[in-house]
Amino acid sequence: MTEIPVKKKLLSFEEILEDRISSADLTMDPPENEEARQYYFIKKARLLADQLQAELGRPLTFHINTFGCQMNARDSEKLAGILRAAGYQEIESEDADFVLFNTCTVRDNADQRVFGRLGRISHYKKLNPMMKIGICGCMMQEASNVEKINRSYPFVDLIFGTHNLFRFPEYLCNTLESDRRYVDVWDKTESIVEDLPNDRKYPYKAGVNIMYGCNKFCTYCIVPYVRGRERSRQKEEILDECRRLVRDGVKEIMLLGQNVNSYGRDLKDGSNFADLLEAAAEIEGLRRLRFMTPYPSDFSEDVIQVIKRHPNISRHLHMPLQSGSTAVLKKMNRRYTKEEFLTLAEHIRAEIPDAALTTDIIVGFPYETPADVDDTIDVIRRVGFENAFTFIYSIRRGTPAAKWEQVPEEEKKVQFARVLSVVQETARQQAAKLQGRVMEGLIEEINAKDPGKVTARLSNNMLVHVPGDASMIGRFYQIRLDECCGFYYFGEALEEC
Ligand code: 5AD
Ligand code: SF4
Fold this sequence. Notes:
- The chain has helices at 13-23, 34-56, 70-85, 108-127, 143-152, 168-177, 223-227, 235-247, 273-281, 301-309, 326-331, 338-351, 370-383, 409-432; strands spanning 61-66, 89-90, 98-103, 132-137, 158-160, 182-184, 205-209, 211-212, 231-232, 252-256, 288-292, 316-318, 356-363, 387-392, 438-446, 453-458, 463-467, 476-485, 488-496.
- It has 14 helices and 19 strands.
- By secondary structure, the chain is of the alpha/beta class.
- The longest helix is centred in the C-terminal third of the chain and has 24 residues, at 409-432.
- The N and C termini lie far apart (47 Å).
- The chain has 4 domains: 13-184, 3-Layer(aba) Sandwich (Rossmann fold); 202-310, Transcription Regulator spoIIAA; 315-433, Transcription Regulator spoIIAA (2-Layer Sandwich), CATH 3.30.750; 438-496, CATH 2.40.50.140.
- The strands form 5 sheets. A 6-stranded parallel beta sheet has the order 2-1-3-4-5-6, with helices on both faces. The chain has a 5-stranded mixed beta barrel with strand order 15-16-17-19-18.
- A hairpin with a 4-residue loop joins strand 16 (453-458) and strand 17.
- The structure holds 5'-deoxyadenosine and iron/sulfur cluster (SF4).
């Protein structure tokens, strides 16, 4: 007899949350299983928060200050989901009952911003003794930062790192039950805890983690030290999350990972990024699919062909070049040469001609000469990047390049200015080519400068400001690109599509 496969019911995010919370039994010890354990603590946090609200006679509030990349933004949605599930309401101001800093440490200025803001919120705590302040994220994976907080920021109640973010419900309870500072930073984790609460920032677009960590060890980069080794989620877990999001009305999904085209290698079951991308693109109702960030030399032909076959995969590829000099790339431990990068970019331009190529560039890496920067400029011009994030090299303690001979600060600035002006030049030239075209755009928000306008994002990631109102947000329109203003356009929304 052939067995008929049972199609599993796709529970909504809310159903999962309430189902797990109601099955937690607070009369027992916390469960061993990590997911069940954290739902146990969410239930407990709800009780503690209820008591506190009754004492205060008002709702409890939270605020999360997020620094850094999309991975951090996604983590903050999880943290917000946990606080909301515990009964807290989000507010815009840092004058909240629970304030969390989700930190970044990729460059030194990110660290400085965190310490600056942290110093400024201490006065809120003097006015609200119930206030709790937590810090998590990449900066906390560095012992020197934890020491600095222990020494100079006595008002911080909770410190945890990137590997144990899923334990936040447990830490929240500890913090609510005690006035003692609670510190827990792990140096690694094998586990990926699925299905914790989730509080999406936008109703129409969402990020989905496909993998965590990085194995590349570029010599300037702190990420492998603070985010650990690559760990991929199971393909079906990822696809279920995407399907749920689409059912909830999400139009655009971004698959997130430090190094997305390494997806699946650690699973050792044949999983790979091209298959995942294709399966996600084929989810019914998913209008647009993006991904961030690929590693140039791991960009397989399969991935290029999947993008080519699926018009709902965004025509925007972010390919971090870092440097155009083969000698510098070698010192950076990037696994491609100038010529290989150029060949790849040329191939992508030929295969997917409407794709915008953007990149990251570091200027002032140890031993970099003006001639090396000439090579970087040469690549920028030849590829004609639609946009680029340019960074001045920043020493990250513990990385190999931190110990090498540094380029003087003044010299870094001079070279940075040269690179920036060429980036601006190619970005303008590429943007100008689209003048007069009509393209599909997803309306994302009211224009901050002109409330009579809304901002649309095109598949190639370009922004177009068009007359409109809030009712258009989250919908796709045919957009005419009328007036190019460097990196963005003014235009008009013609009709919904
Ligand atoms: N200094 C400057 N820029 C850096 N990046 C990563 N580490 C450093 C550093 N130490 C940049 C890279 C990377 C982007 C996310 O940040 O360009 O692609
Ligand atoms: Fe850092 Fe390199 Fe990994 Fe990117 S690929 S996260 S730059 S180590």
